[in-house]
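[audit] Reproducing an earlier prediction to check determinism. Same input, same settings, fresh worker. If the tokens differ from the archived copy the diff job will pick it up downstream; this log only records the rerun itself.
[audit] input (152 residues):
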Amino acid sequence: MRFVLPALIVAAALMGTALAAPTLAATAPRDRLIVPGMRVGPVALGMSLAEMNTSVGIPGQVQQQGPATIYAWGDLAAEIDEKSAQVDLITVNDNRYETADHIRVGLAALAVVTVLGDPDKTTTALGIQNLEYDGMTIVVRNNLVAQIRVRK
């Protein structure tokens, strides 16, 4: 019995420390909603680099492509043009992200058209088809969604 009280005090102190300093994994955003013309998870169109670093963390990869810089966190990427200094394109290659209508990477192209209707514009080159909807482009390869791009 005399060891129970000290053990409880130590356990309470450890729990207090764990609650006071949550780990990065515990505080990382879990939002995986794609909102055409607005955002993908924690990355929104119009964000600055500083806002993205606060929202998502420092990108794992940075790539310069002409006047644009692409910041990537695994299969989620945001493009910032040097003129605007704001996110103007978000690309997702991860099937864990989806729209409210459950459009996601890996879905059959026929399901996309069934749910969203005919695209505003369709382009095809080198076996890749782009289905353009308001605020979103669905990239299709081999009749499956390969990528989703959110834009204004």
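[audit] rerun output stored. Observation attached for the diff report: Confidence is low (pLDDT under 50) at residues 3-29.
[audit] end
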